[in-house]
């Protein structure tokens, strides 16, 4: 072990011992937590307005699309077959659900139906960093 790494180990041990003493005295210590990665933010206020209007199948399609959004934007490229596989829904149900989501303003369709892109409304969902 190098002198530098040994010094870091000893300093970490001292720090943890000091935190334990403070916490044992009944005080709390702020500890920065590791940042979670690859999570999806669904905005509760928008969701509250959406839930009474959306069918269970459309919500399932929304969740499958939302799970694929990127950090920079909410554009998702998926085929109907991929949506069917992800959701376990039939082709007609997926098509009807996509129509419903578009009517509700949750997403927009872009491009040809062979490799359709969907842009989800950022008022509903965003990918977390």
Give the secondary structure arrangement, pairings included.
Blueprint: H1 3-24, E1 39-42, H2 44-50, H3 56-66, E2 75-77, H4 80-87, H5 91-103, E3 107-110, E4 117-120, E5 125-128
Antiparallel strand pairs: 1-5, 2-4, 3-4
**Oligomeric organization of the protein chains:** single chain
Rg measurement, Å: 23 Å
- Name the overall outline: elongated
Question: Mean of residue pLDDT?
Answer: 86
Q: What is the domain tally?
A: 2
| CATH architecture field of the largest domain | Orthogonal Bundle
Question: What is the CATH class name of the largest domain?
Answer: Mainly Alpha
Task: Give a structural overview.
- The structure is a single chain.
- This protein has two domains: 32 residues; 90 residues, Arc Repressor Mutant, subunit A (Orthogonal Bundle).
- The mean pLDDT is 86.
- The protein has a three-stranded antiparallel beta sheet. A two-stranded antiparallel ribbon has the order 1-5.
- The protein is elongated and about 65 Å long.
- It is α+β, with helices and mostly antiparallel strands and 129 residues long.
């Amino acid at each position: 072990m190098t002198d530098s790494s040994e010094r870091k180990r000893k300093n970490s041990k001292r720090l943890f011992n000091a935190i334990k003493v403070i916490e044992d005295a009944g005080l709390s210590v702020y500890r920065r937590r590791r940042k979670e990665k690859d999570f999806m933010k669904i905005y509760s206020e928008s969701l509250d307005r959406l839930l009474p209007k959306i069918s269970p199948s459309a919500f399932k399609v929304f969740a499958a699309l939302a799970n694929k959004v990127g950090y920079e934007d909410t554009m998702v490229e998926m085929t109907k077959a991929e949506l069917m596989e992800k959701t376990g829904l039939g082709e007609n149900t997926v098509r009807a659900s996509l129509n419903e989501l578009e009517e509700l303003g949750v997403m927009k369709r872009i491009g040809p139906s062979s490799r359709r892109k969907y842009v989800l409304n950022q008022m509903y969902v965003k990918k977390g960093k």
